[in-house]
Amino acid sequence: MSESNVYQTPTAELRREPSAVEMQLQDPRSRPAGAGWSWISQSWSVFMRQPGLWVGMVLVYLVIAIVLSMIPLVSILLSLIAPVFTAGFMLAAYNTDEGGNAQFGDMFGGFKQKTGTLIMVGLLQFVLSIVVLLIVGGILFAILGMEGVTQLAEASAGNPENVPDVIIPFMLAGLLYMALIIPIVMMVWFSPVLIIRHDLGAWEAMMTSLKGCLRNILPFLIYGIVLIPLSIIAAIPVLLGFLLLIPVITISIYVGYKDIYLKSA
Length: 265
Description:
The chain contains 10 helices and no strands. By secondary structure, it is mainly alpha-helical.
């Protein structure tokens, strides 16, 4: 009988399963303002464990997105499947973060499970965005009238004479659009990871995501402020810096989700 060497390094692949405590979803909690910076710094650490893989996955996704956006009508499909890809990136972030190894196929994990629910998130986002456009457009039309809308179209076409007459209503409409679209972004922000990790329905995940974001306005404010200079720096080398920044932003969704929604082990 051969004796096993207790000091020998295990040869099997280690892919730690989450404990019940780690996986337990809690009511979203408020985090301190500094958490916004922490999400980015922790995401960089996760990214650096497998940087080549993350850059490769982002490149493939960008190619897919560019190709679909160039095809008439099919470009709408991109908005519907975007949450599916995000869910795959969340699986990759989990596998990288938990000490295992993410695999390239992880980015397509959303096409293997919860696909219908994830597409429903994309569909709801698309419909809500159209509703916002209709609301803002209707208000703008009510303020400007047909003549004002015509002037706005001419100003957009490069006629500077009509700009002063429509600039203030147009700016107010832009502010209203931002005020209405930001909650939709909040609804979608954490939805894919909540669906892929906790089997929530589309609307339930969106409401849970919205609640988590609303309870962490200050961290997200810091998060956005930090991303502004990082985006400027990323744009300097012919936009190549975004190959690093986009994966970090993507991973930060997963890091923020852990911080806000999961109970500590």
